[in-house]
Amino acid sequence: MKDRSYYQYMKTEVGAKTDIGKLATHISEDLSFPKHSKDYGEISDYLEKNPYLHISLDTFDESFFEYKEWLKS
After folding, report:
1. Are 2 and 67 in contact (CB under 8 A)?
2. Burial of 10 (0-12, 13-18, 19+ CB in 10 A)
């Protein structure tokens, strides 16, 4: 099982032609993003307070599920 932050997972999605890829690009360019967090609540709260244009929280939910699966591999 991997021990990586959500940010580290999202860096693997940068450039993907998907909504998660778009979210990953925004996150990688956001200097204030909580880069060391693995906590759904903390990251969700951050994204609610600092929304990215044309990115829904549903995309975050989907990406967080995929992050949890990625940690298992």
Report:
1. no
2. buried
* pLDDT tens column, 18-58: 999 999 999 999 999 999 999 999 999 999 999 999 999 99
Distance CA 73, CA 52 (A): 29
- The pTM score is 0.95
Match 């709260």 to its residue by tokens. Answer: 45
Topology classification of domain 6-72: DNA polymerase; domain 1 (1.10.150)
Q: What is the DSSP letter of 51?
A: P
Which residues, 6 or more positions from 22, have their beta carbon under 8 angstroms from its beta carbon? 54, 55, 59
Q: Are 7 and 36 in contact (CB under 8 A)?
A: yes
